[in-house]
Amino acid sequence: xxxxxxxxxxxxxxxxxxxxxxxxxxxxxxxxxxxxxxxxxxxxxxxxxxxxxxxxxxxxxxxxxxxxxxxxxxxxxxxxxxxxxxxxxxxxxxxxxxxxxxxxxxxxxxxxxxxxxxxxxxxxxxxxxxxxxxxxxxxxxxxxxxxxxxxxxxxxxxxxxxxxxxxxxxxxxxxxxxxxxxxxxxxxxxxxxxxxxxxxxxxxxxxxxxxxxxxxxxxxxxxxxxxxxxxxxxxxxxxxxxxxxxxxxxxxxxxxxxxxxxxxxxxxxxxxxxxxxxxxxxxxxxxxxxxxxxxxxxxxxxxxxxxxxxxxxxxxxxxxxxxxxxxxxxxxxxxxxxxxxxxxxxxxxxxxxxxxxxxxxxxxxxxxxxxxxxxxxxxxxxxxxxxxxxxxxxxxxxxxxxxxxxxxxxxxxxxxxxxxxxxxxxxxxxxxxxxxxxxxxxxxxxxxxxxxxxxxxxxxxxxxxxxxxxxxxxxxxxxxxxxxxxxxxxxxxxxxxxxxxxxxxxxxxxxxxxxxxxxxxxxxxxxxxxxxxxxxxxxxxxxxxxxxxxxxxxxxxxxxxxxxxx
Length: 566
Description:
Blueprint: E1 4-10, E2 19-25, H1 44-57, H2 64-81, H3 87-108, E3 114-116, E4 119-123, E5 126-133, E6 143-147, E7 162-163, E8 168-174, E9 191-200, E10 213-217, E11 224-227, E12 230-233, E13 236-237, H4 240-248, H5 251-259, H6 264-267, E14 270-273, E15 282-287, H7 298-306, H8 308-313, E16 314-320, H9 327-345, E17 357-362, H10 364-372, H11 378-382, H12 396-406, E18 414-420, H13 433-442, H14 449-458, H15 488-493, E19 503-509, H16 524-527, E20 535-538, H17 549-564
Parallel strand pairs: 1-12, 5-10, 15-16, 15-17, 17-18, 18-19, 19-20
Antiparallel strand pairs: 1-2, 3-6, 4-5, 6-8, 7-13, 8-9, 9-10, 11-12, 14-16
Helix pairs in contact: 1-2, 1-3, 2-3, 9-10
């Protein structure tokens, strides 16, 4: 195969000057949208000079319409000049094409939303031809574009991950789809993906003609733009789409209301993808804790998405569940969400993504993650019931549910768990006055419990005495009671460890001055697990553990090591 060299330029984020490095590639790798040369008929030097003239003129134009047109003219002439054979001229042209495209987009989005679709679109007072290149299937044919650098990253701890390069980073947003099974796996707030935008001329047209092209390209699927034989990596904002989602999410308050009986979070419970499914990427599945939501994973998810190597290797999935039920029921619920997702994503069960799965669980989510990877034992059943399962009478569906709650296998494909502030041996806070108050509220709307109570009523004498009266009686069971030290089923459940071959790491928090050491909710002795491949203790309270910089650094290191072994 014959190859020719493509020079590769990485533009700086300031868009004034650009650094250059060389990359050799084969002609067969150039995408169909690559542009071999300019369209204006001007030399690259003349096109660059025209672009600079429009750049100087734009701020002095008397009205917004003419200023916008000047920035557009600057952008398309500069893009044509990128076909230059002179390295310095190429770099200057690419930086100018980016900065003028940015100025144009800022002007037209100042007073109106930027909604585009492939084809002819009126932007401001000018028609342009919009081209989507490599955009993901999850987005509709019409998207809303938001400049990435205008979005706050407050929900991500103020950390913004950007990739410098050619073009203007934006967020491409669309409502969730409804016409395919996978649509149920996208967040109901909408679909938000990184994109890169710039202006250029259409083939065969004079630079600055009436229908310039607005390119909207995915930096994930098509990370480069080729112009004049030069390969320009695209600029991208990988934090902005996630921040856009967090700003629109109602989960922050729904998590707490779900614990005390609110049903809204239960209605949207399930497993959700933050990006388009990739059958070759390893899932990192995050499970939140009691009265919480995936909002708590903001800084960690951002850090994984912002690391180029980890982004290529992993895809982050979030579990949402109503955290009001006993832990064994919650384990069963989460398993159901995982099963439903895989049925949609990989019904044949053969995708590489099925293997090497990583679970990350905070608080009760860590207990659920451990039980998902454990083998149940007869002792677990006997801790609650006095008779064998086969001797029970009752409704077939209710018996099947009871069977599945108490008899389970390690979830297939998982080989790494990261526990964060997980009460593996319970929490004394669950038994204090606040815990009892929350427990009474949490008893509401646990849909599995009425059926289990009917089975008990139909089978007198089938329950152990501890569940007949007292604080653990069957009609008082909730997520809170199952975390009280001494709760019989969880005394046995605490002995159920991840199956052989599954590595696990423990991260715990300690609030300075607590005796015994604790994160304010979970004692250090409960949050550290024997057999952990690594144990990290951070100075943080219970809800601060997942957001602590040392926690995030440790998780990234574990994922890098995990990736190197697969």
